[in-house]
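Mods, move this if it's the wrong board.
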Amino acid sequence: MMPWSSVAGSLQWRPSLSEGLKPAAWFDCCRQYRAVEVAACLERGLTALGLSDSIKTGDRVLLKPNLVTARAPEKAVTTHPEVVKGVAMVLRDCGARLFLGDSPGFGSLERCLEKSGIGAVLGEMGITPVSFDREEVVHEPDHLVAKRLPLAAAAFAYDKVVNLPKLKTHGMMEITLAVKNLFGFVTGLHKAGWHLRAGHDRRLFARIMLDIHHQVNPAWNLIDGIVGMEGEGPTSGRPRECGLLALGADALQLDYLVEKWVGFSSPSPLSREALDLDLLPTEIPPAGGPAATKPLRPRLQPAPGSGSPALPGHRLWRKLFVRRPKIIHSRCHRCGVCVEHCPAGAMSLAKEKISIRYRDCISCYCCQELCPYGAVKTGYVLGG
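Not the wrong board. Structure tokens:
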């Protein structure tokens, strides 16, 4: 099944959105980071989607925000603390016992909690922080790629997982939403290992994400899109006021609908792979809620070169030119974070300067994602 096609000169998405079905997601308008407003939006959405009883008294619930690295809330890199607080208010009223964890791409969990502002919410709301240091290996022969999948043991240690991603563009996967956020359950060097195995193949990396989603399967997902990120995401882009809180039990359908809402002309690599594998139904109900009929305008600007253009000759152009990371030496502090975390070992620090061996680069953009100083940008080079 083709995920989208050209009809009468315009891009048409598949599957179709059926107006007669119960909403697959709830899109609410929220313009300010105030926990009481987040809680009100969440309660409306849980009721509309029939999820009010999904968390019960006594349930041990693990909250999984996006804590990729230690950044302040106004940078729009991590899930905002007021979103975490609003969710905690609702779940605490349900009688749930709350925990929160992630495996940051760079830096300790403690540092990320402190810098993001979430640490203060933990104390205020009685949420227990959880380290993802201990892992559990899942052996699943029916997985698409990861027949042996090491994940944080926390993924299986709680009654429910509530996924709290941040709406951001992404250099490799075009956008990071609910499914991509679950990559945080991969611990330590295993992240680099999966990047290295996938290399340039975004379809393969998408299948790894789908295997992880199959195992974690959150009770529901609430995407923080009040202020998202566009451009050089997921850590070096521009904050963009979107005014969206998007809720859904099915992360794949939620991501698909949000991609349409932000103005993508075709599905992301993750959604495209889910379509090709029939993991998305042929008819997806539209989103409900006040924001569902108010799509983002102008559309979210993607990371440079990460989209799927349909211009004449674009396939030949992409064969001739390859998008690669580039060091902005005037911003570089020579901290070595990019060198340490490069899955392919393609970067080195010599004579007080970072160098990239492009013949070894796999275009995963981990260097750009984890650079604390925004010193890694992307651009095209001839022939790779």
